[in-house]
Design brief:
- The chain has 355 residues and is α+β, with helices and mostly antiparallel strands.
- 41% of the residues lie in helices and 19% in strands.
- The strands form two sheets. Strands 1, 2, 3, 7, 8, 9, 10 and 11 form an eight-stranded antiparallel sheet that branches.
- 52% of the residues are buried.
């Protein structure tokens, strides 16, 4: 049961009193599965939601799909994205469909207004309606259509869990997280694509291998590197202006990749050699039990881990302060409290690094 698997992670104070607490779990592992730090139950089973996107792109990249269609790093990045629907995102998507030979109408992700406020306001003033390209998952779906076209498969049923594209995704994901495919519990995501629930520790392992694929076969290792390099080189494609993943990857400048998912999920991959010379890459997986609709708890936990591990310096943490551990102000700009990590978390991470 989710509540029994979670521990206090983030406190929200008002004055000197703790007013709210976010519960959850996180784990940090290396590519061998060695646990560096954890809090809460690492066997917590949950859906990674959009944090799965780099893994959903992996079998397509591994098959040489990017080369077959002449996809740029920017286009690879948007396949891993929960983008905010800006004009820049739409332009990239339109270019991809032209290369694939598909139409926007082939997307089965659905339609919603862009999350980017400026774009949304401009569209409403102009009397425009959203289209599938505005959907935050349209990059992932475009990648799935490209994968189907690459293999000369049916485009209309590409989201069916038994479609060869989805079978490939499930098998590749299972290999990366080191679980039998049948142990991945099927669900349907908000964009109608299959999504799978499995333990947090296995997701962290998959993320560590994505960051540091040294022990994978050459073809898969190269595909992992293409995906992570694209994400870090084009962080605006992954989310958008003012979004946590985009800002974190920009501030970290090649040290990590980051991908959030709905209902309080977050993954972060630390690249090899960041902690120390010849240090392995690391995978971080975080789940906030209450779904963390504001994103404040995921940001707080992420930044606490990265600061305690010495991955982000004081200047970088300050640059990220609007997202996570920060003071709270009311509408008159009076300081009323703070968002802060539970004290024991930093201590556990430091002990894990020194242990």
């Amino acid at each position: 049961m989710l509540a029994n698997d979670c521990s206090p992670l983030v406190e929200i104070t008002r004055g000197e009193t703790v007013e709210s607490i976010h519960y959850g779990a996180f784990i940090v592992v290396d590519p061998h599965g060695r646990v560096v730090a954890s809090h809460g139950n690492p066997d917590l089973i949950s859906f990674p939601r959009s944090s799965m996107k780099p893994f959903q792109a992996l079998p397509f990249i591994e098959r040489g799909g990017a080369e077959a269609f002449g996809f740029t790093d920017q286009e690879i990045a948007i396949m891993c994205a929960s983008h905010s629907g800006t004009d820049a995102h739409r332009q990239v998507l339109a270019g991809m469909h032209e290369k694939i030979g598909t139409q926007e109408s082939d997307l089965s992700c659905g339609v919603h207004w862009p999350s980017d406020a400026e774009t949304r306001t401009a569209m409403k003033i102009a009397g425009e309606e959203p289209t599938p390209f505005h959907h935050n998952c349209s990059g992932k779906h475009t990648g799935m259509l490209a994968h189907a076209r690459l293999r000369d498969l049916d485009l209309k049923d590409y989201l069916n869990p038994s479609h060869p594209i989805q079978v490939s995704i499930r098998e590749t994901l299972a290999e990366m997280v080191e679980l039998p495919p049948e142990d991945l519990s099927l669900g349907i995501d908000g964009c109608s694509a299959p999504v799978y629930a499995f333990p947090l520790k296995n997701m962290a392992l998959g993320v560590a291998k994505l960051a540091d694929p040294v022990h994978l076969n050459d073809q898969r290792a190269e595909a992992c590197q293409k995906i992570t390099n694209a994400m870090m080189s084009h962080p605006t494609m992954i989310a958008g202006p003012g979004k946590f993943d985009t800002r974190l990857m920009t501030v970290a400048d090649g040290k990590l990749f980051s991908k959030g998912g709905a209902e309080g999920y977050q993954i972060i991959g630390i690249m090899p050699g960041v902690l120390a010379k010849e240090s392995p890459g690391l995978g971080i997986a975080i789940k906030i039990a209450d779904g963390d609709q504001s994103g404040r708890a995921r940001a707080s936990v992420s930044l606490t881990i990265l600061e305690a591990m010495g991955i982000l310096d004081e200047a970088a943490i300050t640059a990220m302060s609007p997202f996570g551990n920060t003071t709270l102000k009311n509408w008159r700009k009076l300081t009323i409290g703070e968002i802060r990590p539970v004290k024991s978390i930093k201590e556990q991470i430091v002990r894990g690094l020194n242990g």
